[in-house]
């Protein structure tokens, strides 16, 4: 023990204790470590995977077409206050309204056409026609097949050449003498709408014995109905 103290340059155990207390810690002792917090600020994050903040736009809804909706609301069997004004001449029909009116009872005297079918090929014989509409919004075409309803005392347009008269079968016009659209030149007055007998002709239009009235007659409804007319002579 004395030799160790002498080697260290101290004379007693008390001096050795003081020496050890004043010595710095060994370099092999672990040092304490407090990690620094990582602070993220806008712009310093890794954005290599792309941003996910962009929202997907909602699909746009097409604007409704009210005229198309009005056409599609009409069904076979409906009757309408609809007629040809005659302003389209003999080559086309000028309907009295731009949008189909509300359906009404087929027994109503204002009902002038009956819808027989929709969105199909339509017959175009005497008293039959069609009305179609193509929507600029959807590109779809809606078609109404129409059959004329005739009422006694109503008037229609006619084109007379000599004794022959061509009747504009889908027209309706006020019963009064006034200018009519070209090429028509007569107002025809409906005197009767009858179930057609076999071999029906204008002679079946006479309303009394000895009736000398000049009648023009047509078979309509596929020959089932006799339509009798005269040239309107009223004021």
Q: Give the CA-based shape.
A: elongated
Beta-strand percentage range: 15-25%
Work out the helix count.
3
What's the arrangement of strands in the largest beta sheet? 6-5-7-9-8
> Which bin fits the share of residues in helices?
10-25%
Instruction: Give the SSE string.
Output: HHHEEEEEEEEE
Secondary structure class reads alpha+beta
Uncertain ranges: 2-8, 23-48
Q: Report on the biggest sheet.
A: 5 strands, antiparallel
**Ends apart, CA distance between termini:** 157 Å
Radius of gyration, taken over Cα atoms and rounded to an integer in Å: 50 Å
Topology, number of strands: 9
Mean pLDDT: 84
Commentary on this structure:
With 235 residues, the protein is of the alpha+beta class. Among the domains are: 66-148, no CATH class; 155-231, no CATH class. It has helices spanning 2-8, 13-22, 66-72; strands at residues 79-80, 113-118, 128-134, 141-148, 155-161, 164-167, 186-195, 216-220, 225-231. Strands 6-5-7-9-8 form a five-stranded antiparallel beta sheet, with no helix packed on it. It has a four-stranded antiparallel beta sheet with strand order 1-2-4-3, with helices on one face. The chain is elongated.
Topology:
Layout (H helix, E strand, L loop, with lengths): L1 H7 L4 H10 L43 H7 L6 E2 L32 E6 L9 E7 L6 E8 L6 E7 L2 E4 L18 E10 L20 E5 L4 E7 L4
Antiparallel strand pairs: 1-2, 2-4, 3-4, 5-6, 5-7, 7-9, 8-9
């Amino acid at each position: 023990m004395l030799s160790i103290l002498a080697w260290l340059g101290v004379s007693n155990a008390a001096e050795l204790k003081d020496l050890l207390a004043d010595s710095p810690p060994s370099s092999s002792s672990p040092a304490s470590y407090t990690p620094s917090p990582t602070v993220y600020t806008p712009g310093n994050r890794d954005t290599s995977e792309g941003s996910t903040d962009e929202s997907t736009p909602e699909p746009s809804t097409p604007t409704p077409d009210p005229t198309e909706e009005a056409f599609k609301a009409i069904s076979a069997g409906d009757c309408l206050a609809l007629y040809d004004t005659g302003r389209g001449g003999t080559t086309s029909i000028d309907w009295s309204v731009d949008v189909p009116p509300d359906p009404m009872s087929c027994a109503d005297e204002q009902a002038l056409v009956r819808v027989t079918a929709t969105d199909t090929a339509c017959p175009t014989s005497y008293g039959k026609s069609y009305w179609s509409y193509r929507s600029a919004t959807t590109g779809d075409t809606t078609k109404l097949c129409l059959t004329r309803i005739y009422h006694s005392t109503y008037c229609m347009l006619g084109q007379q050449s000599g004794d022959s008269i061509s009747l504009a079968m889908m027209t309706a016009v006020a019963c009064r003498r006034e200018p009519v659209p070209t090429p028509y030149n007569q107002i025809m007055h409906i005197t009767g709408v009858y179930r057609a007998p076999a071999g029906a002709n204008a002679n079946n239009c006479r309303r009394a014995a000895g009736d000398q009235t000049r009648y023009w007659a047509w078979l309509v409804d596929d020959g089932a109905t006799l339509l009798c007319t005269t040239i309107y002579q009223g004021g």
